[in-house]
Amino acid sequence: MQVTAGAGPRSRPLPPAYAPSVVLLDLDGTLVDSAPAIIAALAAAFSELGLPAQAPTELMRFVGPPLVDGFRLYAGLTGAANAEAVATYRRHYRRTMLDSPLYDGVAELVRALHARGVPLALATSKHEGYAREILAHADLLDYFTVVSGARAGDVGGRKAQVIDSALRRLGAAGADLSRPIHVGDLHHDVEGAAEMGIDCVGVLWGYGDQEALRGAVAQAATPAELGVLLGVED
Fold first, then answer.
1. For an engineered disulfide with 160, which of 3, 109, 193, 195 has Cβ 3.0 to 4.6 Å away?
2. pLDDT in tens, 67-121
3. Is 139 left (phi over 0), alpha (psi -120 to 50) or beta?
4. Torsions phi, psi of 25, nearest 5?
């Protein structure tokens, strides 16, 4: 089983097991396959608001960054129009968000990390309350010491901000922060982790690819490979 070292400037040889003291996990594209529910809710919101329709490949650009940024960058909406778009999307997404399935092997990895005594934090740009509901629906919430996401009004939802919040809250809970690592599937994860001065492992089963994750310290093709890297699988 092979874990591929990243090709970016921050790459370096890795030990057989990274042995992190805490693990921060992204949600969309890392733990759950949420893209179909997100794209359907976006399409419904665009239709309701009378915005020009976008193809599913275009709507995929909204997966990752905070919603306010997505509607600003990819629909040209600002101010009150942006806020209305976010609220409309959330009304549609709220109906189907729990339909997003876990990726195969993810639940086992989360439980294995918890069994090893590794504190876990969710670090997502999604609304924190929604993230908690999704984890609870998947029977994984109790394995996480911290759930860090966007607050009301999409405040603090950029990846570096949710990572910073997760680390602060882990520290307040008494976790050892000497060897933190973030795990995610998009360049937002790599860049947010780098901004906070920690490494990121890129996962290839989500919505990114090897090129998007080239700045990651390593890349894993499956949850089992990620488990090898994090020291919970032989």
1. 195
2. 888 999 999 999 999 999 999 999 999 999 999 999 999 999 999 999 999 999 9
3. left
4. -120, 135
